């Protein structure tokens, strides 16, 4: 009996399962690297994206120099901005840590709301454009579809 390839009556050993898991992990890593190279880095979860947004906003606010405040109030204003950013992070981080899935659900709900709005807007636009197209074809008809009278204002 061979150790490398079990026959029909033998059970696979732990080393066979480990080798299979390692090969699958290597294939998955190679596929992920190929996709990253082809499509770029995929967006993270909504919680990670919120953290990145907070970091970016904090960096931009820290770099902001207000010409209205002048050189005297600049350091004090910058200290206030840093304090506000730290307070915002202190408030948001625990929420993100405790409920990362909530942000994913909120993001998907927002996408569904956007799709519903887009659908409603497109159907309304179709009604508006069809009404305009019908009116341009027969200007003697009014907007309500009934016969209208042309009034000469001269």
Q: Which descriptor suits the 3D outline? A: flat
Low-confidence stretches: none
Helix coverage percent of residues? over 70%
The number of helical elements comes to 4
**What's the rounded overall pLDDT mean?**
76
> What's the count of strands?
0
How far is the first residue's CA from the last residue's CA?
Answer: 107 Å
Report the portion of residues in β strands.
under 5%
Structural class: mainly alpha
Report Rg. Answer: 32 Å
Structure description:
- With 154 residues, the protein is mostly helical.
- It is built from four helices and no strands.
- The longest helix has 38 residues, at 100-137.
List key phrases describing it.
154 residues; mainly alpha; 72% helix
Q: What are the SSEs and their pairings?
A:
Blueprint: H1 14-39, H2 46-63, H3 70-98, H4 100-137
Helix pairs in contact: 2-3
In short:
This protein has 154 residues and is an all-alpha fold. Helices cover 72% and strands 0% of the residues.
């Amino acid at each position: 009996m061979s150790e490398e390839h079990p026959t029909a009556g033998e059970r696979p050993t732990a080393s066979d399962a480990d080798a299979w898991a390692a090969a699958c992990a290597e294939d998955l890593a190679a596929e992920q690297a190929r996709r990253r190279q082809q499509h770029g880095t995929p967006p993270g979860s909504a919680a990670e994206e919120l953290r990145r947004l907070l970091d970016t906003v904090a960096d931009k606010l820290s770099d902001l120099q207000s010409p209205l405040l002048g050189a005297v109030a600049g350091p004090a204003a910058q200290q206030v901005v840093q304090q506000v950013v730290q307070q915002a992070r202190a408030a948001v981080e625990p929420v993100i840590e405790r409920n990362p899935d909530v942000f994913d659900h909120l993001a998907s709900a927002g996408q569904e709301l956007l799709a519903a709005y887009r659908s409603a807007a497109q159907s309304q636009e179709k009604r508006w454009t069809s009404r305009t197209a019908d009116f341009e074809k027969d200007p003697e008809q009014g907007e309500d579809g009934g016969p209208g009278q042309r009034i000469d204002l001269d």
